[in-house]
Protein 1
Amino acid sequence: MGNNEQTILRRTVESEMKKSFIDYAMSVITSRALPDVRDGLKPVHRRILYAMNEMGLTHNKPFKKSARVVGEVLGKYHPHGDQAVYDALVRMAQWFSLRYPLIEGQGNFGSIDGDSPAAMRYTETRLSKTASTLLEDIEKDTIDWMDNFDGTLKEPVVLPARLPNLLVNGSSGIAVGMATNMPPHNLNEIVDGIIRVIDDPDVTTAELMSIIKGPDFPTGGIICGKSGILEAYSKGRGHIKVRGKTHFEEEDRTKIVVTEIPYMVNKSKLLEDIAELVKNKKIEGISDLRDESDRKGLRIVIELKRDAIKEVVLNQLFEHTNLQTTYGILNLALVNGEPKILSLKEIIQNYIDFRIEIVTRRTRFNLRKAKERLHILDGLLIALNHIDEILQIIRRSKEYEEAKTALIEKFSLSEIQAKAILDMRLHKLTGMESESVRREHKEITEEIQRLEEILKDKKNILKIIKEELLDLKEKFGDKRKTEIEEEAPSIEIEDLIAEEEVVILMTNTGYIKRLPVNVYKVQRRGGKGLIGMETKEEDFVVKSFVTSTHNYIMFFTNYGKVYWLKGYQVPEGSRHSKGRPIVNLLPKLSQGEKIETAIPVDDFEKKYFLVFATKNGLVKKTALSAYKNIRSNGIIAIRLNKGDELISVKLSNGDQTVMIASRNGKACMFHEKEIREMGRNAHGVIGIRLENDDKVVSMDILDGKNDILCITENGYGKRSPVESYRKTHRGSKGVKTIVTNERNGKVVFAEEVKDEDEILVTTKNGMMVRVKVREIRRQGRNTMGVRIIRLNPEDKVISVAKIIENSEK
C-alpha cells in the first residue's frame, strides 16, 4: 500500500457507526427538524423567508414564480432537495396549515382534501403582511449572522420576529429520538397573555388560561375539555380531544351537517372512512353522504334514515372516525441550541427575553446612526454659519484633499464632517434648505435623547414591546375559530384520582415514583425484604416516605428551598420500575440540589408550625402559613450558613417537644417554646452542640407517650420509652440513644413511634422490609438493640419511613 498506509485509521464498525449516528442525530435536531423558540422557525422556513425578502418579494410587490424562489434558496442557503424546499414553502401558504400564513400564493397550493399543489413552475408567490413582521428591522443589527454552506454569503441565525410565531402558528417536526407538535393559537389571546406576563412575571398557568383559552386551529373545530390544555400549558406535553363542528338540519330527513373538521384531518379521507364504515355496517342509520363544500366554506352533509337516532349516529361518527381526534401536544423547541420541553409561560418568557434583546440592539443601532448623522449636521451647521470663509477656502484650494485639510484645520472639523461639507450641493445654501438642516439637527438631538432614555431603563423597552404587540393585534388580530367546551360532567383532574396512601421513593441520582402502600407485604422482624426499586450499582434509594394522593407534598431540599406537588402528580410506577427523574417534576432544581425531606399538607391555614433542623445542629420554627403561596420554581424555606444543609422538617402545633438525634448516637430533647418563631428567610438558632466529627441525622416532634425507635446503618435497632430520655435544653450536647459500635454502625434514624405503627426500611442496594413496631423489642436507652433487617455484605440501611394508620393522619 506504500505511503497511503499512514493515512488509514483503523476503527471498529460499532464506534464509527455510533459517532456518525450521533453527529447525524444532532444535525437533524439542531439544524433541520426542530423550531427555534425565538422565531418559531426551522432553518428551511427561515431561509425561504429571508431569501424572498432579499429578492424583494414583499406583500406589496408583484408575485414571482415559486421555482425562482426555490432556486434562490437552494443556490444560496439550503443545499437540499428542491421538492423539500417547495413543500415547506407551500405549507407556509396554506390557510388550513398555518393559523396566520406567512406566504401568499397564486395558483394551486393544495387543498384540505389532500390534493397536491401544482408544480413550482406553475405557482407564484410572495411574502404575506404577517411575514413582514418576522423580518422587520433585520437590517438594524438586531440579530446574529452566520456563513452559508459554502462561506460565500451570510444568513441570519434567527429572524427578529416581532410576531410571536411559535405560539400563533405552532410547529411540528420529527427529529432523531424526539419530536415536536405545537398547536397554533389566536393572536389576540397570545398578545394579551404576553402582556400579562410582562406586567406580572409571577402569573400562574391557571391565570394565563383565563386569557389564552387554548389552541386555535385554522380549521376551527371544538376542543372538548380543558384538562389536557392545562396539562400541556403546565408541563409542556398533553393531549386534547378535538371534534368537528356539527349541527342538525331537519327537512324531509334529519341531516348531520359538518361545517368544520379537526386540524390536519383530510376531508376526502374522512368521507371515505365514513362510507367504508357504513358499507361494513359498523355505523348504521346513514342513508346518504355528500360533500357540498364550496368557496363559501366546508359543508359535509350526512343524511340519516328515518328511524335513525341522530345523537347515536353522531356519537358513532365521533368514536369511529377522524371527526373526533386526539391532538398530542409536545412543546419541544430549541433554547440556546438545545432541545427543551417548555411550558406555556416558559415559551412566552423566552419570547419576551428575545424581544428585549432585539429592541435593545435596534435602539443601540438607531442611536449610533443618529449620533453619526448629528455629527455630520454639526459640521453642516458650521459650514452654514461660515459659508463665505468656506467658499474662499474651497476656491483657493487646488484639489479636494487640500480643501478638506484646510477645512479641518480652520474649523476643527472631523474628516467625516469636512467630507460632508465638500459634498454639499449649492442648493443647500438657500434659506429654506438651511432651515431644514437646523430643523433636522433639532429633531436628531431630540431623537438621541429619546433613544438614550429608552436604554436607561428596562421598563421602557418592555413598554415598546407591549406597544408593538398591541399594533400586531390591531393589524392582524381576529376572532377565535376553535371553540372550547367543558367536558360533561365537568370534573377536576384530582376528582379522577382515588385518595389512597402511597409510598414515595427517591434515588440518589434523582429518580422518583409512587407506589400503593399495599404493594409491600407485612413481614416479620429480620425478614430479607422485597426489592422496592430497580437500581444500578451507582444508583440507590435514599429517601422513602408515605403520603396521600390528594395531599400537597412540600419537598424540602438540602439547599433550604421548598417545592410543591400534589401526591398524584408523582408518577406511579411498578415495584420494579426505576421511576421518573425528579427534575422533570421540579424543573427549577439547581445543580447539586436534592430533595432531603417532604411533608404532606392538606391545609396551609391551620395553626401549625414547621420546625427545621440542619446538619450542623441549627433549628428554626416558622408558621406553616408562610409557605402557602405555591410557586412552581420554589421558594427559600430556611437560609443556610455556608457548609450547612437542611436535614429534616416536621409539623408542630407550637407546644410540643423537639428531639434532635445525631449520627454518633446522641439526642437532645427540649420544649419547642425554647425556639422563638422566625420568618421564612431566617437562619435559625443552635439546637444541639455537636462534636467535630458528628452531624444531625434526624429530628422529631414528640408527644411524650410512646417510644423512641433508633435504627443503625447495619440493620440493628431498638425502641426505648420517651421518659427514659432526660429532657435537656436547646443547645445542650444531649444524651445517649443507642450504642454505636462496629456491630451497629452509625445511627440513621431516631424518631418517636407507637405500637400500632409500621416502618419501611430501605437499604443502599434497594432492599425494603416492612416491620410492625410492636415486633421490635423495647430496651433501655443505652443498649445495643436487635436485628431489624438482615443485610447482604456491603449493604447499608440508608432510609427509614414511618407508616401511620389512617385514623392518625
Note: Confidence is low (pLDDT under 50) at residues 488-493, 805-809.
Protein 2
Amino acid sequence: MHMKPWREIAIPHKDVLAGSFQQAEFAADITAVRSGKAMPEYQDAVAFFQRTFITEGMRLLLIQVARRLNGEGGEPVIQLQTAFGGGKTHTMLAVYHLASRSCPLADLAGIPQIVEQAGLKDVMSAKIAVLDGNAHSPGQPWKHGRLSVKTLWGELAWQLGGEEGYAMLKQADTTGTSPGKDILVELLAKYSPCVILIDELLAYVRQFNDAMQLSGGSFDSNMSFIQALTESCKLVPNAIMLASLPESEVEAGSDRGNSALLALEKIFGRVQAIWKPVATEESFEIVRRRLFQPVDNEVAKEAVCRKFIETYVAEGARLPVETQESAYFDRLMRAYPIHPEIFDRLYEDWSTLENFQRTRGVLKLMAKIIYRLWKNDNRDMMIMPGSLPLYDNESRNELLNHLGPGWDPVIEKDIDGERSETATLETKEARFGTLNAARRVARTVFLGSAPASVSTRPGIRGVDKARILLGCLEPGQMSAIYTDALHRLADRLHYMSSSAEKNSDNVRFWFDTRANLRREMEDRKNRFNSRNEITGKMAEVMKRLVTNGGCFDGVHIFTPNSDVPDDSYLRLVVLNPDIRYYRENPHDAETTVSDMIKNNGSKPRHRSNRLLFLAADSGAYSRFEDCIKTALAWNSIVVDVRENRLNIDQLQKKQAETELANIDKALPAIARECYRWLLCPAQYAATEKPIVEAFQLNTGTSSLTNEIERVCRENELIIDTWAAVHLHARLNELYWKGETVDVQAMKFWEDSLRYLYLPRLKNKAVLEKAINAGAASQDYFGIAYGKEDNRYKGFAFGKAMAQLDDTLLLISPSAAKKFAEQLESEKKATPPAGQGTGPDYPPATQPPGAGKVSLSGDQPAGNPGVSPANNQPQSFIGTVEVTPAKAKLTLTEVSEEVISILNQIPDAEIKITLEINATFPGGISEDKKRAISENANSLNFKNKTWE
C-alpha cells in the first residue's frame, strides 16, 4: 500500500496555512476575554472547548470547580504553579467559560463527561471576578464610570456585586488596608456561587516598595488580603479561588519579586494544589487540535503509523528501546502528523530553558514550521526533527530567540545554510542528496543538543546515535545511510563535537556556538605545506606497511637513486610521492623507473634486474596527502596542549587525542589505497626494447608485503622455485651456441642480475637448486669444476650433486655426453692397477664433498687400491681478511657462501673464531674503551685484552 505524506492526511487550520497567525494569538489573556476583546477562539465558550484538549490536570480541576459551585465539596483554593507557558491561564479560561456560560453544557466539548464524573447533572452559573496582575499596577486605580477603585479587594467587590458590592469594602479600599475575613465571607456569601480568578498575582504585588506610597495599599496589606481571602473561600461552600504563581525565580524577576513569591507560597502552602501541568503526551492533542483540522482518513493515518513501527522493529537495537514496545504505536497515533520525538525534545530539552513556554512556545514554533513545510510541498510521512526547516528565517528565529547570540553562523555554516557543509556534502554525493540525509541528521542533532549550551540544568550532553536515527529515518529507508552521513559530518563540521570515538555505541553528538577543535585543526592543516614534513610523515606510514620486506632483501622508501645499492640483493623501491602512476598516462612513472635501472646516481647501474618499484596512484594521492596533513595538524595540537602552548578543556583534550589516534589508525589503509601499483622493469627478449609493466595490488588484503609477494609469484616477477628445464632452455638459447658448449654457472647468475630478459631469481640458492635438479639427470646438462686443455675437471653427467661457485661449469647435454663417452673409452684402455698408467679419469660421479673440492680427470696420487673416500680432504681451515668498512657485508657473505655449506655436511665439526686486532697510535678515549668492553662482555668474548 502506498503511504501518503502527512500533508494529504492532516490539513492545518486556515490561519496556519495562510501564515496569518500573530504571535499574540497563542497567548491567552483572561482580561481580554472578560472585557470581550479576545479572539473568537478564546472569547466564545463553544469555540474555546472545541479547540481545547482537556488534559488530566484540567479535568481534575474542573471536577473540583463543578462540585464547589454546586456546594458539593471540592477544594476552595487552588494554586496553579508551573513553568512559564505551562497552561495556567488557559486552565483559568476553561473555569471562566464553564462558570459564566450562556449556552447549554452539552454544547461545550468534553464538559458533559466531566460533570458526569463529578456526580452532577448540571453546574450552576456563577459570579466571576478576574484579578489580572498585568492589567493594572498598584498605583493605577480601576475606573468604573465616576467610581475609582484603588485596591485588589475593591476591584473584587466591584466585579462580584457592582456598586453594591463595592460599598461593602469601600472603606478598606479607600484607606488601602486589608479588609477583615468576616467582611470577605459576607461578600462571598452574598454573591455566591462565585469564582475568583487571580492571574499573574506576583506581577502585581512585587511592585510595592517601602520608599513609595501607592494607591493600591502596601505590600503587607496585599499579603494580608490574600491570606484573608483564602480563609474566607474555605468558609463559603460555593465559592472557589484560583490563583497562578510562577515556578521559577527568573519569572519572579527582582529580589523583591523573589521575596514576594516566597511570601505567597507560604500563604498558599496550606492548600494542596491538585492542578497538574500539561504532560508531554497531552501536548500531542493540544497542538494537534490548535494547528490541524480533524483527520478524516483514519485508515491512512493508521497505515502510516504502522509502517513506522514495522521499520523500527526491523532496525531493532539501532533505535531507542521504547520504539520496540507496542505503546510507541499509540504515541505515534496521538502525535500524528508530528513525530513524538519532536515533542520529547521540546518538552524534555527546550522546556529547561527559562524563557521557553511549554505550550504557547511549542504552538508558536510548530505553526511556523508547518506553514513553511506546507509552502515548500514537504512530502515526509510525518513532521520529524529531520524535517525542521531551519533554512527558513521565521522558523529558525523562533528557536534561536531562546538560545541567545552566536547560533546564526552555526546554522548557516554547518546545518542548513545554502552554502553549508551539509548542502555541499549532499551535492557531492547523490546517495545523501536524494534523502537530504546530511541536513536531516544535522537538524536532529541541533534540536536535541542546542538547549544544553545555555541550560543551567546538569545532564549528559549531546544526542546519541539511536535517537539521531529516530529523528531522521522514515519507512522505506535504511538507517545505514544516515549513520554514514553522521560520521561524515562529525569529520568535517566546525561546530559539531562528539564525546567518544565515532564508531562507539556510546558516542554522543552536539552543536555549540564555540567552534570545536576541528576548525583549529583545519587552520593548522593549511599550514603544513612543507614537502619535507609531508614526505617524512608518509615515509613513517609506509615503513609500518613494509617493515617486513617479505621476498625482498631490502626495502627503500623514498630513497634517492644514488643511495639504492647496486648489488645482488633483491630490492623494493618505494617511489617518492612526487612520482605517481596514472593509468591513462604512465609516462612519468615509467621514465623514472627506466632511469633508475640504468643509472645509480651519476654512475651506471649494473644489476638492473634486482629492482622492483612501488608507486602511488595519481587519483588516490590527494586523499593520502590530505590525511597526512590532518594527522600532522592533530599531532601539533596534542603537542601544544601537552607543552601548555594551547589552553583547552579536558573534553577537547580528549577529543584531540582521540582524533589523532583515529587518523593514525586509518593512515595505513589510506596509504595502501594510494600505493597500489607495482612497477616491474621487463624485457621479453634480448633483441626487444625494455618496458615497464604495471600490476595493480589488491588493497583489501591484510598485509601489503604478502600482497606484493603474491603478485610477484603469480606473475613470475620473482622466481623462488625454478625448474631445470627452464634453466636448460635459457642456456641453450643464449649460451650454448656454435663452438661454445659450456658456460660458467656464476656467469649465468651474474647475467640474471644484469639483464631484464633473464629470470629474476629470488637468490642464488634458487639457481643452485635448479642446477642440482638438472645435474641429477642427463637431459639438461653436465657439470664440471674447471677446464684445462679441453678436458673437464670434476666432470659429472647425471646422478651428480653440484656446488655453485666460481669454478662450476654447465655443459650442454651433447658435449657432456661426448666427453663422458671419451672418458669411458679411455677407462677401457687403461691397464689394471699395478700394470702401468694410462689416461686419468674420475673414479665416479660423486658429489664434490664438504668444501670446494676439485675433481679432475687425473687419477689422484697414492695407492690405486685405496677407496676414493679415503683420498678426499678431511679438514678445512679458512682465513679471510675483513675490511672494517665492509665488515658486515663480508661476514654475511662468508656465512652464506662458506659456513652454510659446511653446515650441510652431516658429521662435520665446525669451529669458528673471530679475531679482532686493533691498534691505536694516538690512543683511545675512556668512553669508547668502556663501550667496547661492555659490548664485548655482553657478546661473550673469550679474550678482550687491552695493551
Note: Confidence is low (pLDDT under 50) at residues 834-869.
